[in-house]
Amino acid sequence: MVIQRESHTEFYQRWQDLARPYFAWQFSQFSSFLGKRVADLGCGLGNFTDFLIAKDYYLGIDYDKELLAVAANRFNEKKNVAFTCGDLTDSQSYQKLRAERIDTIICVNVLEHIKDDAYVLGQMIDVLPVKGTLCLLVPAMPSIFGALDAFDHHYRRYSKQGLLSLLQKYPVEINSCYYFNLIGAAGWFVKSKIMKQKTQTSDNYTLMNRLIPIMARIEKALPPPLGMSLIAIMRKK
């Protein structure tokens, strides 16, 4: 019997379907800070597009043409939604953001994949107007860097101090910077650091989806001292 393996797009589609509650929790960290014209850098299949289609304009940018084609087809009837292929390490990719008068950038789990993250941060901030908003989510805690990170081509995980030091180089006012998803950090440590697993399984997402309503309430009331991710929200001076 021949076992047919998932295609590139099928893998990401399955992951997107399983992780929808988690994407909603991530997005809720940014929702009250967003302007009217939003760029989603590293948008993939459009994990956050559903949350942003009521905006005046949404622009999704990714270097993966295959995933972008699926996202563009899904939202092709939305006149205020656009997708374009771009490499964030190329300054040319930011020209459309200027042309479309983007006032908010969302960048979730992208900077860790880029060797020169300082350059990309500088480009994102430069293209924003004064008082424009940048919303970041990056993997946290270098101490739990492990097999999952290496398999996913991560250059790094960020400490809170390290991220703040990096952001201080730019003309931004940091609204908040905090850890997110404490229980996820514990799971990542076990799977990636101890067990050295290289993939997330469907049951991992099933368990996380059950825990999210509880964890969301707890972390809103009591910000955790550590977490799987760091959230940073800032406005350009």
What does this structure look like?
This protein has one domain: Vaccinia Virus protein VP39 (Rossmann fold, 3-Layer(aba) Sandwich), CATH 3.40.50.150. The chain has ten helices and seven strands. It is an alpha/beta fold and 237 residues long. The chain has a seven-stranded mixed beta sheet, sandwiched between helices. The mean pLDDT is 93.
The class by helix and strand makeup works out as alpha/beta
The unreliable regions are none
Looking across the biggest beta sheet, what order are the strands in? 3-2-1-4-5-7-6
CATH superfamily: Vaccinia Virus protein VP39
Q: How would you spell out the order of helices and strands?
A: HHEHEHEHEHEHHEHHE
Largest sheet, in brief, is: 7 strands, mixed
**CATH class membership:** Alpha Beta
Architecture per CATH nomenclature, i.e. the level-2 architecture: 3-Layer(aba) Sandwich
- What is the CATH topology assignment? Rossmann fold
- How many β-strands, per DSSP? 7
- Write down the domain tally: 1
The average pLDDT score comes to 93
From the structure above, extract its key features:
237 residues; alpha/beta; Rossmann fold; seven-stranded mixed β-sheet; 10 helices
Topology of this protein?
Elements: H1 8-18, H2 20-28, E1 37-41, H3 49-52, E2 57-62, H4 65-74, E3 81-85, H5 95-99, E4 104-108, H6 117-127, E5 133-139, H7 147-151, H8 160-167, E6 172-180, H9 182-194, H10 202-221, E7 229-236
Parallel strand pairs: 1-2, 1-4, 2-3, 4-5
Antiparallel strand pairs: 5-7, 6-7
Give a short overview:
The chain has 10 helices and 7 strands.
